TrEMBL record:
Pfam families linked: Rhomboid
Protein name: Rhomboid-related protein 2
Region span, Disordered: 1-30
Biological source species: Scomber scombrus (Atlantic mackerel)
Enzyme class (EC, first level): hydrolase
Family, as annotated: Belongs to the peptidase S54 family.
InterPro entries: Peptidase_S54_rhomboid_dom, Peptidase_S54_rhomboid_met, Rhomboid-like_sf, Rhomboid_IM_Serine_Proteases
Residue spans crossing the bilayer: 68-87, 118-143, 155-172, 178-197, 209-228, 240-260, 272-294
Main location (coarse class): membrane
Biological function: Involved in regulated intramembrane proteolysis and the subsequent release of functional polypeptides from their membrane anchors. Known substrate: EFNB3.
Length: 298
């Protein structure tokens, strides 16, 4: 018998944690019961990834690290809302008024030289409906996205939407204050929407139609309500800028799409990545110069 050179043998496939990958065809009976975690991961892969990427995702899927970014951001936003609703003097906590408008976190045109406000406004919300809507959307969408793409990608898209939202508001609605995490939430929605549209045929067409319709209905309803608060409602406390919605969704449909569609690929070698990053940086630079030299705000 010929000697076998061990070094020439194909290495056993292992995942990123060093565990041997079990190929489905090698299962003796094909009837192995999936655990709860595996079932959840398989469901996530069907909703978040085209078919060509699902096998690779399932081979290395785990909950380590957990979706810590979106959970921590949500806890922070809820904590700030509770602080202003309970520990700050308010006429009512269903719709907050004085506390949030005097907050050092709120974006205000006459305080825009305090640069942190362009990001920190995401922690402040105008009322129960406002905070619940954002939390529900970002948790339902952000947790599966972070399980697939991990915290860095989701965090970059979310914060890009937050910054794009406040900068867009400072340009197109320069005289009104801004609160809420809608820019970040809409960035996640925009990135997922573009991924669902571009990979429509590979992401289970029937579910693809349902996904797109749900996104359109949710976005249309929310934007409609934002228009109502801005132009129809007589409650001055609710008249906040709505432009952050559009800034966030555009950031998601560009930067977010690149991050979420390039699963398991090196972004630095993707020309779309550089195109979106350069476009985003140009927008940020223009917005900064506008706020310094051209803004009509005080």
């Amino acid at each position: 018998m010929d000697d076998i050179d061990v070094e020439q043998q194909e290495p056993f496939p292992v995942d990123r944690d060093g565990r041997q990958i079990t190929i489905e065809e090698d299962e003796p009976d094909g009837n192995r019961k999936l655990g709860c975690c595996e079932k959840f991961q398989r469901l996530v892969s069907k909703w978040m990834l085209p078919e060509t990427h699902r096998k690779g995702y399932m081979e290395r899927a785990n909950c380590c690290p957990p979706p810590i970014f979106i959970i921590l951001i949500s806890i922070g936003e809820l904590a700030v809302f509770i602080y202003y609703a309970v520990w700050k003097p308010q006429k009512q906590w269903v719709t907050l008024d004085d506390g949030i408008w005097n907050s050092p976190l709120t974006y205000k045109p006459d305080h825009r030289q305090e640069a942190w406000r362009f990001i920190s406004y995401m922690f402040v919300h105008a009322g129960v409906e406002h905070i619940l809507g954002n939390l529900v959307m970002q948790l339902l969408l952000g947790i599966p996205l972070e399980l697939v793409h991990k915290g860095f990608e989701v965090g970059m898209v979310y914060l890009a939407g937050v910054l794009a939202g406040s900068l867009a508001s400072s340009i197109f609605d320069p005289l009104h204050a801004l609160v809420g995490a809608s820019g970040g939430v809409y960035a996640l929605i925009g990135g997922y929407f573009m991924n669902a549209v571009v990979n429509f045929r590979e992401m289970i067409p029937l579910l693809g139609v349902f996904r797109i319709l749900v996104i359109v209905v949710i976005v249309g309803t929310d934007v409609g309500f934002a228009f109502y608060r801005r132009f129809v409602s007589h409650d001055e406390a609710m008249k906040v800028s709505f432009v952050a919605h559009f800034g966030g969704i555009v950031a998601g449909m560009t930067v977010g799409y690149v991050f979420f569609s390039a699963y398991n690929k090196k972004l630095l070698k993707d020309p779309r990545f550089w195109l979106c990053i350069v476009g985003y940086v140009v927008f940020v630079i223009f917005a900064i110069l506008f706020n310094i030299f051209l803004s009509p705000a005080p």
